[in-house]
């Protein structure tokens, strides 16, 4: 699994990268995870109004959450441009 994080302090970034390298060198990294072919589920999505409403609710940003609110505004500005 991969994540994208922005604004990480350099010392934290260095530590995370060192630990990731160590895991890979020990054979514990992502390259050694079991894989699953998902061909049997491709194209099987069935639209569900409740699920769609839940997905939209996850996209809402609550007021007063500081940096989250700023990120949401920046995302909206990029979408409008």
What string gives the helices and strands in order? HHH
Total discrete domains:
2
Quantity of strands, as a count: 0
| Beta content | under 5%
Compact description:
The chain is an all-alpha fold. Helix content is 51%, strand content 0%. It has helices spanning 10-25, 49-59, 67-80.
Please tell me about this protein's structure.
The chain is an all-alpha fold and 81 residues long. It is 51% helix and 0% strand. The longest helix has 16 residues. It has 2 domains: 34 residues; 34 residues, no CATH class.
Keywords:
3 helices; 81 residues; 51% helix; mainly alpha; single chain
Layout of helices and strands, plus pairs?
Layout: H1 10-25, H2 49-59, H3 67-80
């Amino acid at each position: 699994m991969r994540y994208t994080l922005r604004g990480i302090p350099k010392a934290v970034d260095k530590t995370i990268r060192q630990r990731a390298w160590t895991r890979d060198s020990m054979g514990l990294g992502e390259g050694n995870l079991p894989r699953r072919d998902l061909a049997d589920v491709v194209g099987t999505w069935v639209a569900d109004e409740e699920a769609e409403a839940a997905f939209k609710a996850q996209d809402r940003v609550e007021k007063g959450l500081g940096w989250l609110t700023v990120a949401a505004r920046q995302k909206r500005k990029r979408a409008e441009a």
